[in-house]
Amino acid sequence: MPIAEQDVKWVQEPKLGLFGQLYLPLVMDGLTTTISHMFQKKVTEQYPEQEPKLPANYRGVHRLNRDHDGHVKCVACYMCATACPAHCIDIVAAPAPVGWTDREKYPETFVIDELRCIYCGMCEEACPVDAIELTTLYDLTGLSREQMIFDKEKLLSVFDMTTKAGTDPVRTQAGKLGPASEAPPQK
Known about the structure:
Layout: H1 18-21, H2 24-38, E1 62-64, H3 79-83, E2 89-95, E3 105-113, H4 122-126, E4 132-134, E5 149-150, H5 152-165
Antiparallel strand pairs: 1-4, 2-3, 3-5
């Protein structure tokens, strides 16, 4: 449908004076910005010589938490795999071993593809038993794609390492915006 002639508004190009034609206002704006940045606090960090200070609710490498008996806390309910928008979690459930009276199933295999993950925290938020968490570990490296696929043993070793170092205490309470939205309480 063509536009009616009375609905069309023609705009005239603004007329610039001599000052505007010399671009002096734009040059002054650029110099003001440059000089103001010269006197601001420097934000560049010299990584890896200087470790960055990350907030406690930073979303880094995943871990699987252990329960008080040292078993994997996961009950293989598939909530994390269902909530994951990147489809990077693969779980194979099996009946719980004899003696594990607090659950019917446990994850026989639990695999997270860390290269596919977008670190959104949806898995952590969906977990009903707080079995999966994102830690503050950020220096994730590997020489091959296979090294970046974390299985259950590797995820449990991240739990052992982070709790031993005291960098990531187990979160038991969610913040206002989700499990990783606030720093865990300090002991």
